[in-house]
Amino acid sequence: MLNIIGSKTWIAAARILPLFLLLSSSACSGRRERLVRETVAANVEEFRKKEQAKCRATLLTEAGQTADSLLLYEALSEVNDSLAGRRPFRPARPGQIAPIDSAAVRPIFE
Q: What is the pTM of this model?
C-alpha cells in the first residue's frame, strides 16, 4: 500500500492521526475542539507556505532559463543578420611582373 499512496499522503496522515485520536479518546469539549481546529489550520497554512515557496522556486528557475534562451537567440540572430548581406571585399590586383629573362625563345634541339 505504500507504493500506491505517495509519501505526502503518509506525512499528512501522520499529522492528522493524533488529532483524531485526541478527539476519539474522550468527549470533546469546546476548548479541545478549538485547539484541534487551530492546530489543523496552522498545519494547513504551513503546508501552503512550503508548497508556494517550492512552486515559486521552480517557476523562477524555468523563467530564468526561458529568458536566457530568448536573449541568446536574439543576440545570435542580430549577429547572423548583420553578416548575411555582406560579401567579402575583393583584393587589389597585383601589378605586372617583369620577366626575369628577356632573351628570345628558341628551340632546345635544332
A: 0.42
